[in-house]
Amino acid sequence: MNGIQVDINGLKRGEVNLGTSIMAVTFKDGVILGADSRTTTGAYIANRVTDKLTRVHEKIWCCRSGSAADTQAVADIVQYYLDLYTTQFGEPSTKAAASIFKSLCYENKDNLTAGIIVAGYDDKNKGEVYSIPLGGSIHKQPYAIAGSGSTFIYGYCDKNFKDNMAKDEAIDFIKHSLSQAIKWDGSSGGVIRMVVLTAEGAERLIFYPDDYEQL
Amino acid sequence: MAGLSFENYQRNQFLSSRTNGTPKATSTGTTIVGVKFNGGVVIAADTRSTQGPIVANKNCAKLHRMAPRIWCAGAGTAADTEEVTKLVGSNLELHSLYAGRAPRVVSALQMLKQHLFKYQGHVGAYLIVAGVDPTGAHLFSIHAHGSTDVGFYQSLGSGSLAAMAVLEANWKPELTKEEAMTLAADAIEAGIWNDLGSGSNVDLCVMEVGKDAAYLRNHRTPNVREPKQQSYKFARGTTGILSQRVLDVCQVEEQVVDVEA
Amino acid sequence: MSDPSSINGGICVAMTGKDCVAIACDLRLGSQSLGVSNKFEKIFPFGHVFLGLTGLATDVLTLSEVFRYKTNLYKLREDRYIEPQTFTQLVSSTLYEKRFGPYFTGPIVAGINSKTGKPYIAGFDLIGCIDEAKDFVVSGTASEQLFGMCESLYEPNQESEDLFETISQALLNSADRDALSGWGAVVYIIKKNEVIKRYLKTRQD
Question: Where are the active-site residues found (chain B) (predicted)?
Answer without folding.
Answer: 30 (nucleophile)
